[in-house]
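hey can u run this one w/ adenine bound, need the structure tokens asap thx
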Amino acid sequence: MRFDIISVLPGLLESPFAHSILQRAQKKGIAEIHVHNLRDYSTHKQKSVDDYPYGGGSGMVMSIAPFAACIEHLKSEREYDEVIFLTPDGETLNQGIANQLSSKQNIILLCGHYKGIDQRVRDIYVTREISIGDYVLSGGELPAAVLVDSVVRLIPGVLSDETSALSDSFQDDMLDAPVYTRPADWNGHKVPDILLSGNEALISKWRFDQALERTQQRRPDLLQDKD
Ligand code: ADE
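ok here u go:
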């Protein structure tokens, strides 16, 4: 799977993909992540990528020309399944959307800044608009990194069996049960006896009950969505 991320701040995206699972996925050749500097596609002397809004108002708007040049360049090299614009007014990212995207081959991600991007970029090129939550960040780079992380870990072969994404919170619309490791007793704070019992069936039931209770307490909406 390949991601092409178009950004005015490519430096912001140097680190998030250079560690741990995302780094391993790239080393194994399962995921490719390419970051493109939007300014490289500006034809202005100053490499500017934004302009004043038509109709007045505060803030600058990102221009269509550099986005169009970069997207057309990428599309001339391969086909893309999706062109996704990260924006607070998009559909909210969830596990279901991450699952859907993990079966795609090539995805372009557009990171916005300033007051937004010229609506024509959205009308002409964007196939999907995604938000990572109801709050406004300074730009689309961190949301792009969040989206890539949530998707790449789901691609078969990225996680080992033991850490399989299938057991993640949200994967069956439930939060995870609590987990513990050694020591069994920390200054009187004990690990639940059942986890030390060796009885797999009981442990499995305990985990399910705990997950259900946690979900009922913290995210009852997840259980309601089910029916
Ligand atoms: N850009 C700024 N805020 C954002 C958000 N919450 N989600 C996606 N893109 C954004």
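The two ends are 33 Å apart (CA to CA). anyway lmk if its weird
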